[in-house]
Design a protein that fits this description.
Layout lengths: L4 E2 L9 H10 L18 H18 L5 E6 L2 H13 L5 E6 L2 H10 L4 E7 L20 E7 L1 E2 L4 E2 L11 E4 L16 E5 L10 E6 L16 H6 L9 H16 L2 H21 L5 E2 L11 E6 L5 H10 L2 E2 L10 E4 L6 H18 L1
Parallel strand pairs: 1-13, 3-4, 3-5, 5-8, 8-9
Antiparallel strand pairs: 2-10, 6-7, 9-10, 11-12, 12-14
Bound molecules: pyridoxal-5'-phosphate (PLP).
Length: about 350
């Protein structure tokens, strides 16, 4: 076995114990004499498994019955395209606060079905900070206020929940979902693709305040109407059963590890170690995000000389550290240090970075 510490941004590393359990249960699951992939989503075994995952998610995140929890297909991208249709009337607007690539994408996806309004954007600053609330320009007739809690590519994360006043807050938490405790009651909706912090690709979680649904007055194809998914426990059509099952195992693992508070402590420790390594490198490495907006999940960093990138990637792979190549939009490196990345992995990365800087500095 030569599993590396995997810093990939997504699909991303999963807890090894979960993978071991998947392997053990792969051929025969829960006495079903078949794999979880091969049984009906309408059967009792899968319905129990699905309901348990929802209950565990509600427990971990502190979600009350005021909110529906959906397990959807199509990724966070599809959810970002469907949310304007489901949450807003055609004569309303959607407000967007932009702090990076994924906020821009969500905005683009909303335009076909809604008037959109950019509240503020840090694009002119290459997305290195969060625009001050004092500079926001509000829409006036907004059905919701959308932001990206953690920008996976730019490495910009909100430490606090922005204040949208009376307008329901909608947040893309794809890359920091369950990374720390969150006051769900502050939100109209939270959504997250699983493949960053929660499980394999193919399933997306949406937590939606029930009273916001069914007020759009639009004629939607039934499969796009989230009320139908709520009424059918996310089984209006065949759900992604295998990813749902794996997400359930990750949630059980999270509970056993101490829940979101334990992960918040661990994630803060990992991020502090990595930023200390970058900031203490005498300029060999740099991260240009404002300190207060730095992500605890995705840490982009540049080497002082781009010509060293290749050697950094090659040598880090040899050292058992994979997935460090930065997103093509930014270049350089990026270390994604999600819940399933152990502290030992970040220590190994920091040791490697220090050693590399000495050898190539
Ligand atoms: C990865 C990511 C997405 C896109 O997710 P898909 O599942 O590929 O649609 C959207 N938002 C954020 C913050 C992401 O990290």
């Amino acid at each position: 076995m030569s599993r590396a510490f995997n810093f990939s941004a997504g699909p991303a590393t999963l807890p090894e114990s979960v993978l071991v359990q998947v392997r053990e249960e792969l051929l025969e699951w829960q006495g079903e004499r078949a794999s979880v992939m091969e049984v009906s989503h309408r059967g009792k075994a899968f319905i129990d498994c699905a309901a348990q995952a929802e209950a565990d998610l509600r427990h971990l995140l502190g979600v009350t019955d005021e909110y529906a929890v959906l397990f959807l297909q199509g990724g966070a991208t599809t959810v970002s395209a469907l949310l304007p249709m489901n949450l807003a009337r055609a004569d309303q607007a959607g407000e967007y606060l932009l702090t990076g690539h994924w906020g821009e994408k969500a905005l683009e996806n909303a335009k076909a079905s809604l008037a959109t309004h950019v509240v503020a954007s840090d694009k002119i600053n290459a997305y290195r900070n969060i625009p001050e609330a004092s500079a926001w320009q509000r829409a006036g007739n907004a059905a919701y206020f959308h932001y990206t809690s953690n920008e996976t590519i730019h490495g910009v994360e909100f430490a606090d929940i922005p204040d949208s006043g009376d307008v329901p807050l909608v947040a893309d938490f794809s890359s920091n979902f369950l990374a720390r405790p969150v006051d769900v009651s502050r939100f109209g909706m939270i959504y997250a693709g699983a493949q960053k912090n929660l499980g394999p690709a193919g399933i997306t979680i949406a937590v939606i305040r029930r009273d916001l649904l069914g007020r759009h007055g639009r004629d939607l194809p039934p499969i796009f109407e989230w009320q139908n998914q709520v009424k059918n426990d996310s089984m209006f059509n065949t759900p992604p059963t295998f990813p749902w099952y794996v997400v359930g195992l990750v949630l059980k693992w999270m509970i056993a590890e101490g829940g979101t508070e334990a992960f918040a402590r661990r994630n803060a420790e990992k991020a502090a170690l990595l930023y200390k390594t970058i900031d203490g490198s005498g300029g060999f490495y740099r991260n240009e995000v404002a300190v207060s907006a730095r992500s605890t999940m995705n840490v982009p960093f540049m080497l002082k000389d781009e010509a060293l990138d290749k050697a950094f990637l090659k040598e880090s792979e040899s050292a058992g550290l994979m997935g460090l190549k930065g997103h093509r939009a930014l270049g350089g490196m990026r270390a994604s240090i999600y819940n399933a990345m152990p502290v030992a992995g970040v220590r190994a990365l920091a040791d490697f970075m220090n050693d590399f800087a000495v050898r190539h500095g």
